Amino acid sequence: MKVAEINITSIIADLLYDYNCVIIPGFGGLVGNRAAAHLDENKNTFYPPYKKLVFNNHLQMNDGLLTSAVSTKENISFDEAAKAIDAIVKNWGAELKKGKEITLDQIGKFKKLKDKSIAFHQDFSVNYLAEAYGMQPIHVSATQRGTIKEKISRQIIDSTIPSAKSNNTMLKVAAAIAVPLAASALFLALNLPSGDSTQLNWNPFKWNSGKVEMAKLPPRPDVTITIVRPEDFFSKEEMLKIYTEKLSEPKQELSTSVVKEIPVKRTAETPVSNAKFNVIAGCFADEKNAATFLEELKVAGFDAQIVGKTNGGLTRVAYGSYNSKLEALKGLASARLKHSANAWLSEE
Fold it and tell me: Is residue 243 within 8 Å of 336, Cβ to Cβ?
């Protein structure tokens, strides 16, 4: 088989779908990295995630990937495939020395720079990222929103411009409608008491006891925001009760989410609480930081204390210590509601 008959470009393209690094022996390697979806504001186009290709001319050692693919695709031996690739690469090198570009269809272009390095420009017409299969760029355009004043002004201007299809008949019909309306408006303005003239409404069906009422526009649903908060329905005491009951419910433990607490090593120097349950606020490697945090909790109204250290030497600071599990659960709920949702219960 002749070297010219080997379509090495399509073979490299097929490999880029499945591999993040395809080395062309004696030439360099194409390395693929995942790039996030992005918006090109200049083109107003949203692009899906894609595989960004980078060329590294230092990756020239034959790792067998491309050679094996050529051998399988062209039904030739491994050695024959290696020789064919070597001949193609030498041909590329000669073209680059002449200042010409090497174009691999749907992959990109290679060009030799003045410093003898090879520049690569990726062809983005093909996305080699498997997770983005089927996704296409989406062209977006900014929504043009005019103010109510601009819309009314535009409607008035448009209504004053005669249509190319308008004729005298249409003008006569418009005049026949406008004159009675104007006469009715003048009659209402002259006969209504002065105190009611400010509530004039041109809707002739909106009458109440001989007076014209102001029309009430319905609220706009597109600008109505309703914020629902638990505080609007429950008092703090009720919320504390509900939260305590929720914590006391039995939970099914999963093998992948069970957290086993390491027993705390007791030392003579470490102040230890005799309580069975501790609501832990945090663990600190520096005892000064633990002491500072302890004072902050006391200022916040908690009966805080240091409850020993972990096997790793971290000083534990607790919101409070309890002998009853129910009281400990109440303390845990109170700490989470008042201070931090990261509070947790330790059972000694």
Answer: yes
Identify the CA nearest to 31 among candidates 47, 55, 12: 55
| C-alpha span between 287 and 293 (Å, rounded) | 10
Burial 155-184 (b: 16+ CB within 10 A, else e): eeeeeeeeeeeeeeeeeeeeeeeeeeeeee
Query: Nearest 10 degrees: CA dihedral of 252, 253, 259, 261?
Result: 80
Q: How far apart are CA 211 and CA 207, in angstroms?
A: 6
Cα-based distances in Å from 347 to 193, 250, 290 = 81, 16, 20
CATH number given to 236-248+261-347:
3.30.70.1070
The full set of domain ranges for the chain reads: 3-139, 181-225, 236-248+261-347
Using pLDDT thresholds of 50, 70 and 90, give the confidence band for residue 309. Answer: confident
**Taking a C-beta distance cutoff of 8 angstroms, is the pair 131, 48 a contact?**
no
Check if the beta carbon of residue 83 is closer than 8 Å to that of residue 69: no
Exposure string over 67-77, b if 16+ CB within 10 A, otherwise e: bebbbeebebe
Backbone angles phi, psi at 227, to 5 degrees: -110, 120
Q: How far is the C-alpha of 66 from the C-alpha of 224, rounded, in Å? A: 61
Buried b (16+ CB within 10 A) or exposed e, 249-263: eeeeeeeeeeeeeee
Tens of pLDDT, residues 155-195:
655 555 555 444 555 655 566 666 566 666 555 555 555 44
Question: Which of 53-62, 93-102, 176-185, 244-253 has the least mean pLDDT?
Answer: 244-253
- So what's the pLDDT on residue 150? 66
